[in-house]
Fold this protein.
Amino acid sequence: MIDFLPALEHALRRVLPQLHSIEAMNRLSGGASQETWSFDAVCEGGVIPLILRRSPGGQPRVTGETSTSVPLETEAVAIEASRAAGVKAPRVRHVLKEDDGIGQGYVMDRLRGETIARKILRDKEFDAVRPRLARQCGEILARIHAVTVTPELRALLPVVDGPTQLRRYRDIYDLYNYPHPVFEMALKWLEPRMAGAKRQTLVHGDFRHGNLLISPDGVEAALDWELVHIGDPLEDIGWICTNSWRFGVQEKVVGGFGDLPDLLAGYREAGGAQVSEEEARTWIVYGSLKWGIMCMSMYQGFVRDHSVERAAIGRRSSETEVDLINLIIRGKI
Amino acid sequence: MMDQPSMRELVEAVRDFIEQRVMAELRGHTAFHARVAANALSIVARELSSGGPSVEAERARLKGLLGHDGTLIDLNRELCVRIREGKIGLETKGFAEHLTITTRDKVGIDQPSYSGLKRLLADGG
């Protein structure tokens, strides 16, 4: 028996007056501070598939050393603002209130689709849609970056532009105090290229496999808005093109499924700015550097908990170094 | 001198035991972590068999770039400082080549099937 089920039913009746019961409650993932549940709201006239994301009461979300996570309520606000601007994202049905007694979080629609990269890149049922995904990602990003940043949104979201990000990762790297000449080279290369950030827009912050819900019909939704912020829109374009997210299909620059010109064309057609391959390359370099430093942070976690998985990821920072050499020294995206 | 089996053979024996016997009896997350553990032992086996010569070559290249000898960690720390200060950069003779060779050797141990390494090697790296 799940202890918060009666409270969740009570809370959902505010928005679903015809709710009969909650069925098929199933924990999907999450650690001690945050949970994701899948369930069905059985209502008069049909079943509504839903997702609950919540931090149990009294436990605020634990933010990592390298991230700028926003609270779950802010995530919900950003999703709804984006949906209003035509972005494909799950509809938020209810933001938990304090008197709901289930902690912080929100309930959103559960959409169909796949998030596992290996399946999207290899399974036959995605063969036909794969060549269209890069363009669709470009369209979605253009719409996210066109969301009007209201004073309400601006008050909720951190502002993290390119130079600020670079300083932050430089500080984290310095803190770990272990020499990586390739990261030093990349930091030096990026500094002048990121100086004087041009545009500030809403940025998804983690637009990559795992957070893209994809069906045989195309990209269904952008998920996991935990790292949403105000910053340079090129960050989102660079991150989905970072080799670590191509899952071995290096020649398909966009997520291992598509070509950069298609992404940029989709972006432009949906109202986004003209972006050159060179600008994209700068932010792909940033993506590889960021993931490389995140791998270093896994080693710091390993020192504390001796997890074999963190240990193994620690040794993956060299993968990002070889990517940085291909990008910077060889000039290959 | 230690007796046989060698360090590398011992590590490989444990890895093969995990892969061929232990994993078949495990499920879910523990099975996944057993695979990760076996992969970690493969890294150790590769480092044991190929680490020595490339480490000496790395030190020799660092000595060439910095103008003096030292321990590997000290030389790498000094290289980082000089990059940060702008005294050594991509225009410095031998620097790009040093980073390329060092990284190629590292990834060859950590993840020899990595796509980025294949690309580097295909380009004559």
Remarks:
- Chain B has one domain: 7-122.
- Helices of chain B lie at 7-22, 28-66, 72-84, 95-110, 115-122.
- Chain B touches chain A at residues 33, 36-37, 39-40, 43, 73, 76-77, 79-80, 83-84, 86, 89-90, 96, 99-100, 102-104, 106-107, 110-111, 114-120, 123, 125 (CB under 8 Å).
- The mean pLDDT of chain B is 94.
